[in-house]
Design brief:
The complex is a heterodimer. Chain A contains 21 helices and 24 strands. The two termini of chain A are 95 Å apart. Chain A is of the alpha+beta class. Chain A folds into 5 domains: 20-194, Orthogonal Bundle (Arp2/3 complex 21 kDa subunit ARPC3), CATH 1.10.1760.20; 220-406, no CATH class; 467-497; 506-614, Beta-Lactamase (2-Layer Sandwich), CATH 3.30.450; 621-854, Histidine kinase-like ATPase, C-terminal domain (Heat Shock Protein 90). Chain B is of the alpha/beta class. Chain B has a single domain (3-115), classed as Rossmann fold. In chain B, strands 2-1-3-4-5 form a 5-stranded parallel sheet, with helices on both faces. In chain B, helix 2 (34-43) packs parallel to helix 3. Chain B is globular and about 35 Å long. Classes of the chains: A alpha+beta, B alpha/beta.
Chain lengths: 865, 116
């Protein structure tokens, strides 16, 4: 049968619009099962039954709702009236369901058991006290045993109902509400938890109690048997003594054989209960014993009692049927019986009688009267014991012992044990609620973690169904995954925080830009270096203060290994040279969540992180080295410069002086004057040009940066600068340019310095060699995409040491002529920065210094010198 | 009238020197190549009263020229070493009165003083 449950996890009533007919029959079935459950009750002890009807009433409540639950419980309760003979239990059962419905406990399976517990403790127990104790008058012991049994019975039934419900879902006998979350299977687990612990303990205790009671009964029976045995012996002794007395007493009487007195004694007297006078019935009157006394008798049928004889403690009677009775004296109370006037004497819960009927063997049995109230039945229970006596007449002795004292004692013991079970069960229920709460919290947590995982990873949602086994398997995986995820998340958070702290506080300049070169991060070190605060820089283009073209840098596919040099003009106007190495964080928002970077990273995913290296000092130092090298070269050329400049000045001075002198003495021909003035003009221009060259060479011009330039043109400039010195040293210099105007890339000023250094070295080498032929040649040509410059001279060339150490810093072969040893070292450094190479070796006439540079592709770079 | 020899690798200077000497009434001879000047001295050892030599020349420095010329001329011949650059190593020449050092550019007043 497939039904849709009435509840959802936290229980909202569903409509019954679908499958109404099956639901109707299912409801009827549950009502019938409720009756049947009570009919098939278990009689545990002392007339106390465990009934199972309410299990189905609870199922009706869970599955079909309050109406069917009330119908079922009323049906079942009617049977308990028949079962127990009173309607109090039925009232309590109906109230139980009504209480839960009224408080809304039925809306949530998780609250159901708690509601039932509350009902039995706070409602049912006080109500029962009133009903059972005061209206039925049962003893306290019985009441406590009864109410505790009912609490257990109620909790057992509702727990069993929950288990059956979940089992039905797991076995797919009914359909779970789609809104029941798998997390609510924790209810099932908690109920199982209670059952797993409480039921074995409870059953064990109940069985123990039942066995204890059986043992008590057995013990009582054994005692009774012993007592009846003793009594039989005593009675036998009495009878024997009495009959012997009778034999002697009646020895002269003749037996009236006409009357069938086979089973009668020889003399029978009758007693008038009114006058208490004796008269003989048969036999001789004189044999009337004298010692008959203390007789109180009443015979409602015949108004007489036939007395055979008596002793101090017992007296004997005989009935018409021939039975001989011996009565304990003192409490004799004759009553009638429908068979005979034999029975009925009671002495404080025990009675015994002697019968003349033949009893084959001793018997014993426990009889529980079918009282109207079974709760009290055990209080009226008794043990009946009967034994045969071999006397003159076949006779038996029977003894009946009431079980009320032992039943009360057993009920006291039972209450104590039941109290343990009830308290243990309630404790387990509370414990299960606590456990369920935490389990549910964990389930909720795992649910949220699953949702979080689904955001980042793909999980097969089909796995998240309501199958308990799969849930457990998923739970294990989720727990494992969640723990790992949590650890990773914590580690990532820690790493991000550390990273933020690191890049903020590091002494290294760190900044970040987006793809358009707009600043997204600016650390404190940069703030201190540049004077620009982070607030001033954020979202502003970096090239506003930096000499760098980010458009070109980011125009190509991003490279994580991008590295470039650039300079920043600080707020105070100083140049700061930086070498930046970048790292790209593409999914930046995933990593950064709570910092300025994320805040300023709304519109671009890729953030370029640059860890910069402050090269200001290095570049300044290198500039100083280059300047030193330049000054060294300048020092060598100073004489030549001075001489070169003074020559035209001297011409100008003398030409002007001569003209003035001639003008003093006579008229100066105009041609003379014109010639002199033209000479003055020419030499003045010549001097100006020399000054310009010197100024350009010696001035610390601002570095124009890396540009493409024509090396041949710069070589020609160098020759112009050095020409006077070379002329004075009679060194011929020649420039052979076969490059067709090819360009190379670098800083022109530094390249010029390189050529000056090498040509000066050649000049010095030539002068030192005393060579007859004094020549230096600068040869430029392009070979396979490389521009090669060879500077050869007719000097003495390199020796082995100077070849190997030519580019070492401060190594010089010209120390005696103020050589610094930094010229070739700086030349190599400069050429390396231009991606070029330099070699030194000996040629056929002297030294050769060769350089090569990559040629600039003119199609992509139109810049030139 | 004095006979003056001028050795300077700059022709304009030599020409202006000759013009000045002409104005002043002296006779001047100019060689741009010091070697040629020496050869002239060798043939006319007592002819020149005053010799002006440029210090820095490609073929021969003024110092070398003077040292060589002194051996050809008599002691009364007056030598002037001209340079626009102060040369520290000229002390031996100057101190021994073998030559006098004059700075370029030359002023006519200074030259007048020399010939006065």
């Amino acid at each position: 049968m497939h039904l849709t449950t009435n509840l959802k996890s936290d229980g909202q009533t569903k409509n019954f619009s679908d499958d109404n007919l099956p639901r109707f029959f299912f409801g009827l079935l549950l009502c019938a099962l409720t009756i049947l459950g009570n009919y098939l009750n278990i009689d545990v002890f002392f007339g106390i039954n465990i009934v199972f009807g309410s299990i189905f009433a609870w199922l009706a409540l869970i599955i079909l709702g309050p109406a069917w639950a009330m119908a079922a419980i009323i049906s079942g309760s009617l049977y308990t009236i028949n079962l127990w003979g009173h309607g109090y239990a039925a009232t309590i059962f109906v109230l139980e369901i009504a209480f839960v419905i009224a408080l809304g406990g039925y809306k949530s399976i998780s609250k159901l058991i708690g509601m039932v517990s509350i009902y039995w403790i706070f409602v049912a127990a006080p109500s029962s006290l009133f009903l059972y104790k005061h209206m039925m008058g049962i003893p306290w012991e019985t009441y406590f045993g009864l109410i505790q049994k009912q609490i257990l019975n109620g909790l057992f039934n509702v727990c069993l109902a929950v288990i059956i419900y979940y089992l039905a879902i797991i076995l797919r006998l009914i359909n779970n509400s789609p809104k029941i979350k798998k997390a609510k299977f924790s209810n099932f687990l908690s109920v199982l938890f209670v059952f797993a612990l409480a039921v074995p303990y409870g059953f064990n205790e109940i069985i123990k109690i039942s066995r204890s009671f059986d043992l008590s009964k057995k013990s009582v029976i054994e005692e009774e048997l012993k007592e009846i045995e003793n009594l039989s012996a005593y009675v036998l002794y009495v009878l024997q003594s009495e009959t012997s007395h009778w034999e002697m007493m009646l020895s002269n009487l003749e037996l009236d054989t006409q009357i069938n007195f086979t089973n009668r004694p020889y003399s029978v007297y009758s007693i008038d209960t009114v006058t208490l006078s004796f008269s003989i019935v048969f036999g001789e009157e004189k044999v009337l014993p004298d010692n008959i006394k203390y007789i109180y008798s009443r015979n409602n049928i015949f108004n007489k009692t036939e007395i055979l004889g008596c002793d101090d403690d017992f007296f004997y009677t005989v009935s018409e049927s021939g039975k001989i009775y011996v009565w304990e004296q003192g409490t004799l109370d004759f009553q009638s019986s429908k068979e005979d006037y034999d029975i009925v004497c009671s002495t404080d819960w025990s009675e015994f009688k002697i019968q003349s009927s033949i009893v084959p063997q001793a018997i014993s049995k426990v009889t529980v009267p079918e009282a109207s109230s079974k709760i009290e039945s055990w209080l009226k229970a008794e043990i009946y014991t009967e034994a045969q006596i071999l006397a003159l007449f076949p006779t038996s002795v029977s003894h009946t012992h009431g079980l009320r004292p032992i039943a009360m004692l057993a009920q006291k013991n039972l209450n104590s044990e039941l109290n343990h079970i009830v308290m243990f069960t309630l404790f387990l229920i509370v414990l299960s609620y606590i456990v369920t709460y935490f389990v549910s919290e964990r389930f909720k947590r795992y649910t949220s973690i699953i949702e979080e995982l689904l955001k980042h990873r793909t999980i097969n949602v089909e796995l998240l169904n309501t199958n308990l086994y799969e849930d457990q398997e998923i739970l294990k995986s989720v727990v494992s995954l969640a723990e790992r995820f949590s650890e990773e998340k914590e580690a990532r958070t820690f790493a991000v925080n550390s990273f933020n702290q690191l890049i903020q506080d590091t002494s290294t300049p760190v900044f970040a830009t987006d793809n358009k070169g707009r600043v997204k991060f600016w650390n404190k070190t940069l703030e201190n270096m540049t004077g620009y605060t982070s607030e001033e820089m954020l979202d502003n283009p970096l090239d506003k203060i930096a000499k760098v073209d980010f458009t070109n840098i980011f125009s190509e596919e991003y490279s994580d290994e991008l590295s470039f040099d650039f300079s920043i003009t600080s707020k105070s106007g100083e140049y700061i040279y930086l070498k930046a190495n970048q790292t790209i964080l593409r999914d930046f928002s995933d990593l950064m969540t709570t910092n300025d970077l994320a805040t300023h990273n709304h519109d671009h995913n890729a953030v370029h992180f640059f860890v910069a290296q402050d090269e200001t000092e290095a570049i300044t130092a290198r500039a100083h080295m280059i300047n030193m090298s330049r000054l060294a070269a300048l020092g060598e050329m100073a004489s030549a410069f001075a001489h070169e400049l003074n020559q035209p000045l001297n011409v100008i001075t003398m030409a002007a002086g001569n003209t003035l002198e001639r003008m003093k003495s006579s008229n100066v021909p105009s041609d003379y004057t014109k010639e002199k003035l033209k000479r003055i003009e020419t030499n003045a221009l010549r001097a100006g040009k020399i000054i310009k060259n010197i100024r350009e060479f010696t001035s610390e011009r601002r570095d124009e940066g890396v540009v493409a330039f024509n090396p041949a043109s710069l070589c020609q400039n160098v020759i112009g600068i050095l020409q006077e010195q070379l002329r004075l040293d009679q060194v011929e210099i020649e420039l052979c340019d076969a490059t067709e105007g090819e360009l190379i890339e670098g800083r022109p000023m530094l390249f010029e310095q390189v050529i000056v250094n090498i040509v000066n070295n050649s000049r010095q080498s030539i002068v030192a060699s005393k060579a007859i032929k004094r020549s230096c040649k600068i040869d430029l040509q392009c070979i396979e995409g490389l521009l090669v410059i060879e500077i050869s001279d007719s000097g003495s060339g390199f020796n082995d040491e100077s070849i190997s150490r030519a580019f070492d810093p401060f190594y010089t072969t010209n120390a005696d002529r103020s050589g610094t040893g930094i010229g070739l070292y700086m030349s190599k450094s400069i050429i390396s920065s231009m991606n070029g190479k330099i070699w030194a070796f000996n040629g056929p006439n002297g030294a050769i210094v060769a350089m090569q540079f990559p040629v600039v592709d003119r199609t992509s770079n139109s810049a030139s010198t | 009238m004095k006979h003056v020899l001028i050795i300077d690798d700059e022709d304009n200077i030599g020409e202006e020197f000759l013009d000045f000497l002409e104005i002043m009434g002296h006779r001047g001879h100019y060689f741009s190549n010091p070697i040629e000047g020496l050869l002239s001295l060798k043939e006319n050892t007592d002819y020149f009263d005053t010799i002006f030599v440029d210090l820095m020349m490609p073929e021969m420095s003024g110092r070398t020229f003077i040292k060589a010329a002194r051996k050809l001329t008599n002691k009364s011949t007056e030598y002037f070493l001209m340079s626009g650059v102060p040369e520290l190593d000229l002390d031996d020449l100057v101190n021994s009165n073998e030559a006098k050092f004059i700075h370029k550019p030359l002023s006519l007043s200074f030259l007048k003083g020399v010939f006065s």
